[in-house]
Structure formats: C-alpha cells, structure tokens
Design goal:
By secondary structure, the chain is of the alpha+beta class. Helices cover 35% and strands 24% of the residues. It is built from 15 helices and 22 strands. A hairpin with a 5-residue loop joins strand 8 and strand 9. Helix 1 packs across helix 2, helix 3 packs across helix 7 and helix 5 packs parallel to helix 8. The longest helix has 21 residues.
C-alpha cells in the first residue's frame, strides 16, 4: 500500500465521492488485494463520525472455484442475511464505495463462464433494491481506483512498482495539487458542456470512424449529465472517481449499424477485446470479438435488456487518462479515456424532472431496464459524432475524438 495515496483517496472518497455525513453507516467493497486501502478508508470514516463500517470482500478466485465444482442448483444460492442487507442499507441510508484495482483481474483462474454468469445474476437479483435506488441517485455511492504492485507491472512494464502506478493515478485523481478543488472545477466544466448539449435539442447521433458507422436516437425528455450528482436531501457527490464522462440515455429501440470497441473491457471476469456489435431496431443482433466471445454471449443472455443500450457517453480524447497513453484494463479508468456505450440498465434521473419509478413507464419513454450495466469504450482519434436536432439542424459535436466546444 502507498500510504500517501491511501490517505488522499480516503479523504476524497468520503468528502467528494460520498458527501459522507456523521452518523452514517458505510459499506466498503474490495478485493482481498486492496484490503489495506479499504482499511484506511474505514479508519477515516470512523474519524468523520461513521456509525459502523462494513468491509465486504469480493473474491474472484473463490467465485472461479465455485463455478467449477458446485451443482447448478446451488450457484444461485444467496443466504437470507445477504438478501436482507441491501434493503437495510437503503432504509438506513448507508453510503457505499467499491474500490477498483487491477490486482483482482490479473490472475486468470480456470472457471466456467456460464456458471459465473449465474452467480453474477443471482447477486444482481439480491441487490436489486439497492441498485434501483443508486441508479436513481437516491443514495450516495462511489467507485474509486487504487493501485497495486502486479497491476503496476501489467500497465507500466516489468520492474515497475506500486509507487510508480500510484504516481500515475495521482495525476489522474488530482492528488498532485488541491484535489478537492480540482474536482469542483472539473465538475463546473462538465456542467457547462451538458448545458450546451441540452441546448441542441438532439434527436439523433451519428458515430462515424474507420471501424464504426452507428446511429442512435433520443427521447426529447432526456438531459445530459456528468460529474457530480445531487441526492434528494441536497448533498452533492461524485459516483465515480475518476470521472470525465458526459452521458445520457438513448431510446433503447433505435440503435442501428455497427460499432467497434477501442479498448478491452472486463465482462463477467473475462477480458474482451475488439468487439463489433451489430444493432437492428435497438437490439444487438450479432457480434464478433477477438477475445471473450463466450463471456459476451453470457452477458447478452442475462435478460432482454442486456441486448439494448442504457447509456451513451462522451469523453474528450484530451482527458488526462487518454493523454497518458495507457490502457488500464479497468472500466472505471478506461471509460474516462474514451467515448463509450453501455448495454443494460438506464439511469432514469436523466429525464427532465426525474421521478419516474416503474419499469413500464420507463419503457414507454424508451429507457432500458436490466440486471446489468456494462460499458464498452468506442471512442478514437478518428471518430466524428454528429448531432441532428429535432428541427433538422446538424451539429458536429466531436471531431477526431475531441469536443468542438
């Protein structure tokens, strides 16, 4: 563990990431490899007046073993106390943070992909109450990145250290300066871009590059969002750290054409690369992939919503993560280096006025519902994104992967 990084991360997550308040309870989800960072975060939470901190260990190795040796009828088993936890967390206004470190993804444990998908689906079902609230930003949640020694070598090369990776991540997180102010200023910039995009009254976007020719349309009631979000009690928090994206939710029935990924992505514990999705009437009808086809097939078969879009997001190629020239193999970091799309659930609070609760109403408005939400990076320095407004105006909003405003 790099102590200076851990201390700053804990402070940033609790103050900006969660807008943590005295008397709250906190869940910290971590892999075994990043436990020390979770402990520092928990200690800081207690210093800030936390009522209780629960560190929840997520172990990929055990899931892999379970997928190989367990009977199918046992794979979906979730004990009652774990099923009750999400509802209790919602009722008692728990904050939640998940620490993301590439350490957990380095070891390629033998596993059964179909069985991993069953385990993942059962957990998603059990967590549905909390997911429902978090997707609507009714409660504060956060995902934040921390370094690790083997991840450092994977990204930076043999002989690189955890301290080397912490230095790279520190620049991305703003830790080399006034990092609390850094995130406030970035949020102001993103909010201004959201305002401009909303003013365009966008009906359709056309993504065009050497490997992509893709169209998707939008309901007039949607808005663009990015950076910090506001909970119903007025507190402002950042769901992701880092974050560079400006996103909205498309009409799930409208995607047409083909779109290719430009960075690898972890799907159900498998790294997938060079994916081409083919869409018709909003639905993935076929795909190809250089790596990870089986995991992708399992994801798409989770439910009907897994084959439709829940999000489209803009990220400028001038983002600090993109400028680093590194591929991190972490969706949290890599999605903030590239424009991306997400298969699965939409964020309902992008609708003007918010307040939409039930899935049937969301479906009528074209917003997707699903047990999954997985981002796929599609941006590149040869991509142009053109918006067509409801009145027929066309505006190039990104040229060569960079915002035109």
């Amino acid at each position: 563990m790099v102590k200076e990084y851990a201390d700053k991360l804990a402070n940033l997550v609790l103050i900006k990431g969660l807008a943590f308040k005295k008397g709250q309870c906190l869940q910290v989800v971590t892999a075994p490899e990043s436990y020390e960072y979770a402990r520092v975060l928990a200690e800081r939470a207690y210093e800030m007046g936390a009522k209780f901190v629960y560190i929840d260990i997520s172990d990929h190795r055990l899931d892999a073993k379970r997928s190989l040796v367990q009977e199918k009828e046992d794979l979906a088993f979730i004990p009652s106390f774990l099923k009750a936890l999400p509802s209790e967390m919602v009722d008692e206004d728990w904050a939640r943070v998940r620490l993301d470190s590439g350490e957990a993804r380095i070891d390629n444990y033998d596993s059964n992909g179909d069985n991993i998908a069953l385990i993942s689906k059962a957990r998603s079902e059990a967590n549905k109450v909390y997911s429902y609230k978090s997707m609507r930003h009714d409660i504060a949640w956060n995902v934040a990145v921390c370094p690790g020694p083997r991840w450092a070598e994977q990204i930076l090369g043999k002989g690189s250290t955890e301290e080397d990776l912490a230095e790279v991540l520190s620049k991305i997180m703003g830790f080399d300066g006034d990092y609390l102010r850094y995130w406030d200023e970035l949020d102001m910039r993103n909010k201004e871009r959201c305002r401009i995009l909303d003013s365009l009254d966008i009906k359709t976007l056309h993504y065009k590059s050497s490997v992509t020719d893709f169209y998707v349309s939008y309901n007039r009631k949607r808005t663009f969002q990015g950076g910090a979000r506001t909970i119903s009690d007025g507190r402002v928090y950042f769901p992701n750290l880092p974050t560079e994206e400006i996103f909205t939710c498309p009409d799930m029935n409208t995607a047409e054409g083909h779109i290719k990924t430009t960075r690898p992505v972890d799907v159900l514990g498998t790294m997938c690369e060079d994916i081409v999705f083919n869409f018709e009437k909003g639905r993935v009808v076929s795909f190809s992939a250089k790596k990870g086809s089986e995991a992708l097939e399992s994801l798409l078969n989770t439910d009907e919503g897994a084959r439709r879009l829940g999000e489209t997001a803009f990220v400028d190629q001038n983002s600090p993560i993109c400028r680093s020239g590194l591929v991190f193999g972490s969706i949290l970091v890599d999605e903030n280096a590239s424009c991306h799309i997400a298969l699965g659930a939409s964020y309902p609070d992008v609708l003007k006025g918010g307040g939409v609760a039930d899935e049937k109403t969301l479906e009528k408005l074209g917003l997707n519902s699903s047990l999954v939400h997985v981002d796929f990076m599609v941006g590149s320095d040869d991509m142009t994104i053109t918006a067509e407004s409801f009145d027929g105006r066309k505006t190039v909003i990104m040229e060569k992967g960079v915002f035109t405003f």
